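Following up on my earlier thread - several people asked me to post the actual chain instead of describing it. Fair enough. Here it is, all 214 residues.
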Amino acid sequence: MFIYMAAIYWLIQPFGADAQAAFGLGSRVMQALFLPAMAIAFAAPAIAGQNFGAQNYQRVRETFTWTAIMTCSLMAVITLVCLTQAELMLKGFSDDKEVILISVIFLQMICWNFVPAGLVFTCSGMFQSLGNTMPALLSTATRLITFILPALWLSKQSDFQIEQLWYVSVATVCIQALVSFCFLRREFKKRLPSNDLPKYSNGNLEENNLNNNL
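Reply from S.P.:
Thanks for posting it. Predicted structure:
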């Protein structure tokens, strides 16, 4: 996050203080809007981790499915709010019309990456539950590389516009979501056997067999 934010602030220097203030305002509002979805996504590792430890692998998969549905659905609602009510959310933080205008444009463009970001949050939580967070680091590195390199190239062009950065940002979050999902599928295949029956202690096994016989 530090590298991403620092890169953007450096890249938008030519557009002046209004642009930097607008990005700071818009990004803080965006992060505040993310909190409910992040709360859902970051609760998933505890549930999935417990079931992974109990070798109830089907519930691990179900935890991912329902967390992704809830997180992405909430992100879709937030996207609609940004598309329709962005100015209303920003007015309480600034009286500068130029700052508000740039922030509105930022939110209305960047909100198209909210649903993919929800999937990224969900996948990151699942990597924690499986005890391997390296894929999350690699997917984040992928986003940084795919954002910073094109952004640097665009900043050297004579027709460089600030909106181009937001387009690149949306594209890179979509790429990160795809990479995270592919990594998670690989982790599921490696760590979640096809046999989803949990192991029981001797007492529970005898009780289970008795119930089956009855």
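The chain has one domain: 2-213. That should answer part of your original question.
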